[in-house]
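Good morning C.,

I know you're traveling, so I'll keep this short. The sequence:
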Amino acid sequence: MSKKAATREAILQQAVALASQVGISGLTVGSLAMVSGLSKSGLFAHFGSKEALQLAVVQAAQAQFVAETVQPALAQPRGMARLSALFHGWIDRIAGERYPGGCPLLAAAYEFDDQPGPVREALVAGQRWQRETLLRLLQQACDLGELPPDSDVPLLAFMLFGLVQSAHHDRQLLDSDQGLLLARRGFARLLARD
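The tokens, ready to paste straight into the viewer:
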């Protein structure tokens, strides 16, 4: 990795952490310059515009999610082990202290849900990919006989995604970790075999 690429990566890590506190829309070259200790012109040379910075932060946060949550889950055997690793890794990510202001992607989904443009498009693509990943892992569990063959896979994926969002909401807005526990219980209940 070149020095310029390494510097950009370090800046993006700081930007993702800052975005978790101020939101993607609140992220500016000026606010990032204050946190990073770099000049505005130096940051501008890496990103060129506020929108390009915001888009890069969304992409960096999505890449972090894949590397830290999805890839470890995919290392597990197909079926419920993999699905469980993904879900619990996702909840652990919310419970962790990596992002001082919570998951920047979940927060940004609400910030940009009605704002057209490249940042929203990147968020939509990421959220769809996450849902499709849940669908795929649920279907694998059905195909392996670990879930009933008549399981409503789209509904289960929707509900699991909702548990993740609810856990994040409770932790960030209500300052309660109860949602983390409820999400884990919800996962067990939704996927319990009678």
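Safe travels,
E.
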